[in-house]
Amino acid sequence: MKNIITKEILDNAFTYDEFKELINYLNKSNKTTGNIQSEKNIYFTKLNTERVKRIEKTTVLNDELKKELDKIQSQFVILVIAEAWCGDVAQNIPPLKTISDYNPKIEVKIILRDDNPEIMDQFLTNGSRSIPVFLLIRKDTLDVIGTWGPRPDPAQQIMREAKLQPDYSHEEAVKNIQLWYAKDRTRTFQKELADFLKTISAD
Questions:
Q1: How deeply is 145 buried, as exposed, middle or buried, from its count of CB atoms within 10 A (0-12, 13-18, 19+)?
Q2: Which stretches of the chain score pLDDT less than 50?
Q3: Residue 199: its pLDDT value, please?
Q4: How much is the pLDDT for 198?
Q5: CB 32 within 8 A of CB 47
Q6: Cα–Cα distance, 93 to 95 (Å, whole number)
Q7: CA distance 68 to 40
Q8: What is the rounded CA–CA span in Å between residue 190 and residue 188?
């Protein structure tokens, strides 16, 4: 995979806590991230703030994922392409904080999609700028060794099936995906990440 990540990009990226601080500031200013400052996006940014708080409190790493994290001895960065209004971002970045706390060799950094189109366009999902996208990067070489996103496969399947319906409603599909997240409680995300880390340790 072509290496387009530079040290400058990582140095200027938000930490997880800095990203939360940015969102809190934007909420107070009645704004959001990204190019579209719509009432809907501003509303979802505020809603996502509460989602993040809830998921941070309830996320517990499973034994399978902890086993794979214990094997990680090199320094890695998970670079997230995100926007504050995105529901899938809110659902999937809190577990990364828990993972980084468990194994500090994995650092979490976040960049905004609309501010970094040249990076986003290298990691499209079926030609779409879907987010979040997680890039797993070796810190010493800056090589991108894998990607994940924009959502766990069962949630992605809900969206795929919805788009096949003649009366497709994006809002309804998003609602169903959020209901799936609430029931799943990060279990599928953790399994998908554990499976990916197994391929790294096998190298």
A1: middle
A2: 1
A3: 75
A4: 84
A5: no
A6: 6
A7: 39
A8: 5
Length of the chain: 203
Q: At what angle do helices 16-28 and 94-102 cross, to 10 degrees?
A: 150
CATH homologous superfamily for the domain 7-201:
Glutaredoxin (3.40.30.10)
- Got the DSSP string for 150-196? SS-HHHHHHHHHHHTSTT--HHHHHHHHHHHHHHHTTHHHHHHHHHH
The token pair that represents 16 in the structure block: 């997880």
Which one, of 97, 90, 89, lies nearest residue 61 by Cα? Answer: 97
**CA atoms within 13 Å, Cβ hemisphere of 67:** 8
CB atoms near residue 178 (< 10 Å)? 16
Query: Considering only CA atoms, which of 72, 63, 107 is closest in space to residue 199?
Result: 72
pLDDT tens digits for 143-184?
Answer: 999 999 999 999 999 999 999 999 999 999 999 999 999 999
